[in-house]
Amino acid sequence: MKKKINIEQATKIVTQAISDVLKGKAVISEDMQLIGGKSLLDSMNLVEVCLLLEDLADEHGFEFDWASEAAMSRSRSMFRSVSTLAKEFSNQSEV
Amino acid sequence: MIIVTGASRGLGKAITERLTEKGEKVVGLARSVNGLSIEAIECDVGNYASVKNASREVKQLKQPVKAFINAAGVASMNMAVTTDESTVQKLIQTNLVGTIYCCQLFAPIMLRQKHGIFINFSTIAVALALKGESVYAASKAGVESFSRTFAREMADFNVRVNCIAPGPIQTDLLKGITDTQIKKITSQQVIPKQFQKSDVCDLVELLIDERASSLSGQVLNIGGV
């Protein structure tokens, strides 16, 4: 199955979304934690990132489901880091 | 537009009719949309996939959602020890889980708008601990607690969440309840009388109005407790 968004594109999209939400006030790296004590995002920021990604996915013709069981399971959470979120975003773009 | 679950009967239907009369565009969610005179989407609130599909359809309408009213609900007047397993499941699934699913899945529309109102429904049976309504009251106590906390989660996005807790209102949910039983309940209210669907509609209108913008995380018991 082909992915509409490859992992490099997904990483760029996710990084840009986080930067937009943080209003450019932080340097975003792939291993940046998105949840937990060391995260620069509070819960409201995280929701804003998810909404942005949902809209971007819509523009690319697929649905980004951030409330899925995989997202919610702590051990497999897509929100562990920028790279895990980008991977999930790319995976969900599969057609 | 305003979305109302349980739009095909009871309080949901009355609220839908009132808001439509007031010139609001109302989209109803109901398990059966046959015979509904408004735009309606088939939806079983207790089923996550069904609510998810309904939220997708609403999103496709590309119109702002002013308010979401969780009026869908079921009741059972039985002591806990005589309530069968499937009724327990149905009460919790429809009343509590259904309300949570709807709030979860329709909230993103309002979060984007940075504006919105959720109105959820509890029952006076929670505050009055009415004998014979223990499981029903449990499902609605969950709605109250969820609503109060959800309101805090939504406040930063300018989304208000409130709960209306009616007493015995004349709908199908009161089938089989005698006037004596109704009076026994209403006598425990601050205002000891049976209120009508129109009173519930009045409160819904009030909570949707911008003049209620200071109210969130509240449970409003009709008749008072």
If you had to describe this structure to a student in words, what would you say it looks like?
Chain A has 95 residues and is mostly helical. Chain A has four helices and no strands. In chain A, helix 1 (7-21) crosses helix 2 (43-59) and helix 1 packs across helix 4. Chain A starts with 6 loop residues before the first helix and ends with a helix. Chain B has 225 residues and is α/β, with parallel strands linked by helices. Helix content of chain B is 45%, strand content 15%. Chain B contains seven helices and seven strands; from the N terminus they run βαββαβαβααβααβ. Chain B has helices spanning 10-21, 48-60, 85-113, 124-128, 134-155, 179-186, 197-208, and strands at 2-5, 26-30, 39-42, 67-70, 116-121, 159-165, 218-221. Chain B has a seven-stranded parallel sheet with strand order 3-2-1-4-5-6-7, sandwiched between helices. In chain B, helix 1 (10-21) crosses helix 7. The radius of gyration of chain B is 17 Å and the shape is globular. The interface between A and B is small, with 10 and 9 residues.
Q: What is the structural class of chain A? A: mainly alpha
Radius of gyration of chain B: 17 Å
**Unreliable residue stretches of chain A:** none
Largest interface: A-B, 10 and 9 residues
The low-confidence runs of chain B, each spanning 5 or more residues with pLDDT under 50, are: none
Provide the fold topology:
The complex is a heterodimer of chains A (95) and B (225).
Chain A: H1 7-21, H2 43-59, H3 69-72, H4 82-92
Chain B: E1 2-5, H1 10-21, E2 26-30, E3 39-42, H2 48-60, E4 67-70, H3 85-113, E5 116-121, H4 124-128, H5 134-155, E6 159-165, H6 179-186, H7 197-208, E7 218-221
Parallel strand pairs in B: 1-2, 1-4, 2-3, 4-5, 5-6, 6-7
